[in-house]
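Fold this sequence, please.
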Amino acid sequence: MQSGKSFKEIVRHFTPNWFTMNMGTGILFLSLHESFPAAMPGQAWLTRGLWWFDMGLYVLFSGLLIARFAWFPDSLGRLLRHPVQSMFLGAIPMGLVPILDGWLLFGPQLIGPHAVVLAEALWWLDALLAALFGWLVPYFMFTRQAHLLERMTAVWLLPIVSAEVTAAAGGMLAPHLAPAAAEVVVVTSYVLWALSMPLALTIVVILFLRLVLHKLPHRDMAVSSWLVLGPMGTGALGLLLLGTAAPAAFAGSSLAALGPLARGVGLIGGLMLWGYGLWWWVMAWLLTLRYLREGLPFNMGWWGFTFPLGVYAASTLQLAHETGLTAFGIFGALLVIQLAGFWAVVTVRTFHGMWHGYLFNAPCLSGENALLGPGHKT
């Protein structure tokens, strides 16, 4: 690389922010394969290629992060105490979710029924990581980190929302399992959803207050305005998918009577969260256009343009399927096109930053301002 940094220095400055690249790439191939209503030439080849690319990145990033903590054990404590970088630990389980979903979609053609077994094992691992970071990061926020209301941004959502992302994946996994296993996954998914969604909504309320009192964050955190779409999109998608999976998962058990109720709650709850997300989608555009007048410096936070928008697009298209309303389908398709455009721009800028080395810069080690993400560059 042109940065002149040694491999060990790159490892030392590797941060969990990189897993947001998995999140953005993963939701793109899922949206194109599962949600986009019109097939495109080469769509099957493209989605499978992105899945393999995403898996390769996840293995690489996991190896780099493990190497960092092995070579520099003190960096873990620095990371947990950092008021911004620690939030991105939630990207680790969220980045894994599209990969395990990919095993459900593409894996059976490669390894047969073992793909579902692998996806189930990855889902339980993901649930463990999501719950762990959902408790661990707030604990450090309460006890070790320094926070001010005027410096708060939507990145507070990242360790919290990971549990509901796992819950939505549970709704996708359950129909592939035997009824007893599906019941456990669906019940666990509802618990994970509850571990996340109420807290996420609480954070959004505080964020609204912060924006009213202290106005917009520094332009290096401009993209964080899109992150609020994440809990709205995954919250709605989780209710919709779990509501669809619950009747079959609960059939023949003591919860059988709750199956139709879960479906109804999923649709009504999904619509309400989707509507709340629509307000934030419009606001995110308005704020981004305002920031553009100042110039948006590139950093890894730009991946916030992708995953929140992608899950909101997925929930929109799931609503089109559930309600039969054409308007949801059209709007969902436009959101997927927007997602693809954002992903293309951010991916090109990311590889440029990797080549020149300025993205390998951990604020928790270099003493940068806590507002700044790694490798900020105008």
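The chain has one domain: 7-366. The radius of gyration is 20 Å.
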